[in-house]
Automatic annotation (TrEMBL), chain A:
Name by which UniProt lists this protein: Putative spermidine/putrescine transport system permease protein
Protein localization: Cell membrane
UniProt xrefs under Gene3D superfamilies: MetI-like (1.10.3720.10)
Segments passing through the bilayer: 12-34, 54-73, 80-99, 119-140, 152-181, 201-223, 230-250, 262-284
Organism listed in the record: Salipiger marinus
One Pfam family of this chain: BPD_transp_1
Residues of the ABC transmembrane type-1 domain: 69-283
Matching SUPFAM superfamilies: MetI-like (SSF161098)
From TrEMBL, chain B:
One Pfam match: OB_MalK
UniProt-listed SMART domains: AAA (SM00382)
A single GO cellular-component term on record: ATP-binding cassette (ABC) transporter complex, substrate-binding subunit-containing
Species name: Salipiger marinus
UniProt protein name: Carbohydrate ABC transporter ATP-binding protein, CUT1 family (TC 3.A.1.1.-)
Length: 293, 361
């Protein structure tokens, strides 16, 4: 009798129903992120008749559009830098300082809410507080004789927009940097102390190098966050400040002065800038997680 | 000569909770002091107090005759090796080791010389340019020790440094620490919950429980003459047999199941209270005929369990209502359910008061 080898196991297809759980999200991303992005990218290289062109991209290099990118970058950099600094100090005070432990939970909850507070409500809140007739503006003028407007401050300006952006930038920094500060091992500080290091030496030589990727990565994320903020800018400044989102809105709002395909090119430029910032964030975050493991 | 470390009447509280109570310990230069006890007994807190990482509530700490009670850790001239190693992940091994010298402004030539010496001593020359994340647990442990060694301190503090290593590596590193202690003549305070580590490394052991020192002594004193039931039970593996017994004049009576009580003659029990706990190490109970001496007495015992362990065989019997372990030779005839004559070496016996747990003899 000849020996027969057993038949190979039959491949069976098992539908993993767990994937159904992420289907709504995947569909949402496809419909409202991937497809619009593809439309923008393709539209940036098309004439109104659908033919291919580089003219829209070339149009980005006109003085007015370049200037709008420059202002947007300056506002994003300043709001990200100040947001990083203040957010880091607040988180450090909460995690490492001697503040009451009960403060942490409300601050984190507030940060979670405030980091998503933008658009018309935020613009209105700042107009109502720091606008020409805002509560704080009037209070400072009547009670202390401090006239913000006479001192050159205007909510509808570069610094006005920067301060407004800080309302969501600082909480976002707190949310991201707090876990990194939690990850600083107590033993690192104790070892430095036993080895003869001062507090400043510990921060300069041990803690900050460990936290640096997190801080730089979060700076990139905050930059992207500010660079892509459209609704707050439009609601607050209207057309008085030529930043990219406002120039972009002018191209696509549908009136005869607009050029939708130039708008697509501007949006494409924004995607590149924010995409680059996000890549920087992801790379640095992976690096910082390696340190803090 | 003044002790290298002298702790007097030390107390440590967190709010109303007292963690360390009236701690008095001193060691001489070159001593290897091991603080041992179960989790939560306060041994790591005591080490942190010596390092200055935890402020103390009362008492004093003198290092080499100088009062360090309120001195900051960086000025105590100590070096500490942490359980988690506490190596800096962004720095190379070389930079980790020289970190302490760098912050204290030691010149570069001295830093390089000491780094070379320590790297050679600990056999880590090949890893100097690696980061801690690229090292194994044992290599990290060596780097952590190297960082402490270059400090050249008056006192080394080790906080459970081997607890993150696997069993084999732990034994290797334990030997290396012992060799290092002999070679350098260093004064060391070492925290562990592992009583084997304590016995093998220490020149002096402090056994702690609930923030209170239970006994201070050499490993032999702690092992042979435990001060109380806690120390007797905690030190040694298998633990000391603690058998409830009754004193009858100069005899000790121990219940055994299904037979008349065992009567052992021991003049030491004269004058002891009626109810005692008799403590005898497993190696002090042998198979009859394998242990001789005037203090050795035999009794037949029912064997419940036989556990061959390679070099020895452990047999378990029930005496005084407790499981009693005897360490026998490997060729023993003992079998579960059968009776075996066991020889009890009463020259090694300890007696304890059942209620207070204190030693009676």
């Amino acid at each position: 009798m000849t020996e027969q080898s057993p038949p190979p196991p039959r491949r069976t297809f098992h539908l993993n129903l767990n994937w159904l759980g992420v289907m709504p999200f995947a569909l949402f991303v496809l419909l409202f992120l991937v497809m619009p992005t593809m439309k923008i990218v393709v539209g940036a290289f098309q004439r109104p008749d659908g033919s291919f062109t580089f003219a829209n991209i070339a149009g980005l290099f006109t003085p007015s559009i370049l200037s709008s990118y420059w202002i947007s970058i300056k506002i994003s950099v300043s709001s990200a830098a100040i947001g990083c600094l203040i957010g880091f100090l607040m988180a450090a005070a909460m995690v490492l300082g001697g503040l009451p432990r009960g403060l942490r939970s409300p601050l984190m909850t507030f940060s979670g809410v405030a980091s998503n507070f933008a658009g018309v409500p935020l613009a209105f809140a700042f107009l109502a507080t720091l606008g020409p007739l805002g509560l704080v503006t009037v209070f400072l003028r009547t009670e202390f004789g401090i006239n913000l407007r006479a001192m050159g401050f205007n909510i509808l300006s570069f610094w006005g927009l920067t301060i407004t952006y800080l309302f969501f930038q600082i909480p976002l920094m707190i949310l991201i940097v707090t876990p990194a500060l939690d990850g600083l091992k107590r033993e690192w500080r104790e070892a430095a102390s036993c080895l003869g290091a001062t507090g400043a030496q510990y921060w300069r030589m041990v803690a900050l190098p460990i936290l640096f990727p997190t801080i730089l990565g979060t700076f990139a994320l905050l930059f992207a966050n500010a660079f892509g903020a459209v609704a707050t800018a439009i609601a607050l400044t209207g057309s008085s400040l030529n930043i990219v989102p406002i120039m972009l809105f002018a191209q696509i709002r549908g009136d005869v002065l607009g050029d939708p395909h130039l708008g697509y090119a501007m949006a494409f430029g924004m995607i590149l800038v924010t995409g680059l910032a996000n890549v920087v964030y992801i790379v640095l975050r992976m690096r910082s997680e390696r340190w803090l493991k | 000569m003044a002790p290298i470390l002298e702790i007097s009447k030390l107390r440590k509280s967190y709010g109303s909770t007292e963690i360390l109570k009236d701690i008095n310990v001193s060691i001489d230069k070159g001593d290897f002091l091991v603080l041992v006890g179960p989790s939560g007994c306060g041994k790591s807190t005591l080490l942190n107090c010596i390092a200055g990482l935890e402020p103390i509530t009362g008492g004093s700490i003198l290092i080499d005759g100088q009062d360090m009670t309120h001195v900051s850790p960086k000025d105590r001239n100590i070096a500490m090796v942490f359980q988690s190693y506490a190596l800096y992940p962004t720095m190379s091994v070389a930079k980790n080791i020289t970190f302490g010298m760098k912050v204290r402004g030691v010149d570069q030539a001295t830093q390089d010389r000491k780094l070379r010496e320590v790297a050679q001593q600990l056999q880590i020359e090949a890893y100097l340019n690696r980061r801690p994340g690229q090292l194994s647990g044992g290599q990290r442990q060596r780097v952590a020790m190297g960082r402490a060694l270059v400090r050249d301190p008056k006192l080394f503090l080790f906080d459970e440094p081997l607890s993150n290593l696997d069993a084999k590596l732990r034994v290797e590193m334990r030997s290396e620490i012992k060799k290092l202690h002999h070679r350098l003549g260093a004064s060391i305070v070492y925290v562990t919950h592992d009583q084997i580590e304590a016995m093998t490394l220490a020149t002096k052991i402090v056994v702690m429980k609930g923030g209170v020192i239970q006994q201070i002594g050499t490993p032999q004193e702690i092992y042979n003459r435990p001060a109380n039931l806690f120390v007797a039970d905690f030190m040694g593996s298998p633990a000391m047999n603690l058998i409830p017994a009754r004193v009858r004049g100069t005899q000790v009576e121990i219940d055994r199941p299904g037979a008349a009580p065992i009567l052992l003659s021991d003049p030491k029990v004269a004058g002891l209270p009626e109810n005692v706990i008799l403590g005898l190490r497993p190696e002090d109970i042998a198979e009859a005929g394998y242990r001789a001496g005037s203090d050795v007495q035999q009794a037949a015992c029912q064997i419940d369990l036989v556990e061959p362990a390679g070099a020895d065989t452990y047999v378990v019997s029930t005496l005084g209502g407790k499981a009693v372990t005897a360490r026998l030779h490997t060729e023993t005839r003992a079998a579960p359910g059968e009776s075996l004559d066991l020889a009890f070496d009463l020259g090694k016996v300890s007696y304890f008061e059942p209620d207070s747990g204190r030693r009676l003899n």
